[in-house]
Write a structure and sequence with these properties.
The structure is a single chain. It contains 13 helices and 4 strands. By secondary structure, it is mainly alpha-helical. The longest helix is centred in the C-terminal third of the chain and has 74 residues.
């Protein structure tokens, strides 16, 4: 087999990549603008559907339930086909695809068994071996090991410089996500793990912005509060907004797709949507965190309450406005009907008056003739 570093080039020769996971079976999802920033994927009918599909791959069948998970079966069949051919005979891009699929299936142990010998060999280890190892360790909750492997990928391995079907701006964005956001995120999680994670009830939102080199944390991380210093629906103080990169939403979308079961990271995405003014999407995300993902952080619950209250108020105001507009329309229609009846009444009255005068004139003429 060629040097595993070649995986970096081979993996994307035919397909796209996600930050941290490179597979010939996963497309690149983001559009890069002229300034090198990624545009976020539209949430409704876009990102939420993609995320649901990724989560479905990682769902193991429940005992006693006759549920058919077609997406998981498809990935399992692909894994079985590659394993049947023998991992030692697979080309570099197939090895990358195999380990990416195992990670998606939450079979992190199997991925580690394939990747660790490659990473230990300086002739075969490389960027993708290390970044897949980082993701596999993170999937097992081994944050320190995940950070160490990602550090090997970012700091001690060469990032790919050319891919077929990839533009230089796309590659630059992937490298920036790996180095400036994913590595610090793992460093912060590793630091929490070392100190003992506080658990759902005491966790703060993930520290990701503004970016800083690990293991340092930002001295003044972004706070999702309004100008009054309080959490509010659809707002963020301008001083806090300046701490966010233009593509903060896309960056966190990418990390969420990589860690689709991480409720705390998903919470951060919800706060970014709220800061962007999309209160409904933010509340839907916090709903998912609280209920579907069973995340019991009281801050999430309180923020969801604030957002729901704002949405309910907005709906009530909108319904009231609709009711007023409907009443106004009904009043306009009533006034129009009144005007029509007045016009008809006047016309009838004029008609009757004309008939009266005509009849009187006719009778007058008849009387004159009778006298004559």
């Amino acid at each position: 087999m060629r040097l595993f570093v070649a995986v970096v080039a081979c993996v994307v020769l035919t397909t796209g990549a996600h930050a941290g996971i490179y597979s010939p079976n996963e497309p690149f999802l983001f559009e890069i603008d002229a300034e090198g920033f990624a545009k976020p994927i539209q949430y409704s009918g876009g990102f939420n559907s993609i995320l649901a599909e990724v989560r479905e791959i990682g769902m193991r069948p429940q005992p006693g339930l006759d549920q058919v998970n077609e997406r998981r079966k498809k990935v399992e069949a692909r894994v079985g086909d590659r394993q049947a051919r023998g991992t030692s005979t697979l080309p570099a891009e197939e090895i990358a695809g195999l380990t990416a699929d195992l990670i998606r299936l939450n079979d992190n142990d199997k991925a580690l068994n394939i990747l660790q010998p490659l990473a230990r060999d300086p002739r075969r280890g490389g960027f993708i071996a290390y970044t897949h190892l980082a993701r596999a360790h993170a999937g097992r909750g081994e944050w320190r090991e995940a950070f160490e492997q990602q550090q090997m990928a970012v700091r001690y391995s060469d990032f790919p410089t050319s891919f077929r079907n990839f533009t230089k701006p796309q590659l630059a964005w992937l490298k920036r996500v790996e180095r400036d956001y994913y590595l610090p995120w793992l460093a912060h999680r590793a630091d929490e793990s070392r100190r003992g994670r506080p658990g759902d009830l005491r966790e703060d939102i993930d520290v990701l912005f503004p970016t800083t080199q690990p293991p340092k944390r930002p001295e003044d991380p972004v706070q999702f509060v309004g100008p009054d210093g309080q959490y509010g629906a659809g707002q963020i103080a301008e001083s806090e907004r300046r701490k966010l990169p233009p593509d903060a939403l896309a960056i966190v979308q990418q990390l969420v797709l990589w860690h689709p079961q991480d409720a705390r990271l998903y919470w951060l995405l919800g706060e970014l949507y709220n800061a962007d003014g999309d209160v409904e999407t933010a509340m839907n995300i916090l709903d998912m965190c609280s209920y579907a993902m069973s995340y019991t952080n009281p801050n999430v619950i309180e923020h969801r309450r604030v957002l729901k209250s704002a949405i309910d108020t907005a709906i009530a105001v909108k319904n009231e406005q609709i009711a007023r507009e409907r009443e106004l329309q009904l009043q306009v229609e009533r006034d129009a009907r009144k005007r029509i009846w007045w016009i008809v009444s006047i016309a009838v009255a004029l008609g009757l008056l004309l008939i009266y005068y005509q009849s009187r004139e006719v009778f007058r003429r008849i009387r004159r003739r009778m006298r004559a």
